Amino acid sequence: MQTELSQIEPKQLFGQSFNITDAPKFNLALQLLRESTSGVPMFASDNLITWNRNLSFLREDYFSAMLTSGDADAVEKSCVWRLYILLNLAKSCLGLEGDYVELGCHKGTSAKRLTEYMDLESVDKQYWLYDLFQWNPGDEHTHMPGHDNPRMYEDVVQRFEDKPWVKIIRGSVPESFEQGFPDSIAFAHIDMNHPDPESSALREVLPRLSDGGIVVFDDYGWWGYSAQKRALDPIASEHGLSILELPTGQGLLLKR
């Protein structure tokens, strides 16, 4: 006779969502959803609401520790599902030829998490971080709170000073590639919030991406950044590849 397996303990996470134009109505809708799904796991954060899922990332020590730590702000905690996907895909590429690159590293937050989650040094990989590290009135790229720090670049350099295998390149993409760019790439994370540098970067990344290599696009599935989807899809198609939109708003390209 088959033994019935007991269900695992339900987990829940409620964090920040963005682009809400009527917060009272949104909160009321969320309250009604919670009342109508009582007793099952629920996730409502980062513009993603779902229930009756295992929410495996809430059960991993690394992510549960991050969510209770004081060194992660509310936005980073709200985007934990995105981070979970990013880090696990990056880890799956450790055995491939090539380095890791992050295009649009901002304050180095996700890059720092990646270096904590896996040991790139032991497999002799370098990690290349690219960013303008500034924003000026009139610039086309998105203004972020980190841009208000005049020492943004210096602080990122200091953040990785104990990891000489992390290479930090300041400047616009793709022009900054002249300062250094790997010949072979195992994993790339692209998060520049603008179709022009992202499409230029993808044209440089794909010829260097190892077989089995992965590119994760942070904003690919977000309607507000849909110009990036229109720019990136044809480039992937030129290489016989496609980009998969994930529920988190990320895009996934797997080279085979």
Structural features, described:
The chain is α/β, with parallel strands linked by helices. It folds into 2 domains: 64 residues, no CATH class; 163 residues, Vaccinia Virus protein VP39 (Rossmann fold, 3-Layer(aba) Sandwich). 31% of the residues lie in helices and 18% in strands. It has 8 helices and 10 strands. The chain has a 7-stranded mixed β-sheet, sandwiched between helices. It is globular and about 55 Å long. The mean pLDDT is 93.
Unreliable stretches: none
- Mean pLDDT across all residues, rounded? 93
Proportion of strand residues: 15-25%
Q: Give, in spatial order, the strands making up the sheet with the most strands.
A: 6-5-4-7-8-10-9
Number of domains: 2
Q: Please give the radius of gyration in angstroms.
A: 19 Å
CATH architecture of the largest domain: 3-Layer(aba) Sandwich
Kindly report the CATH topology of the largest domain: Rossmann fold
**CATH level 1 name of the largest domain:** Alpha Beta
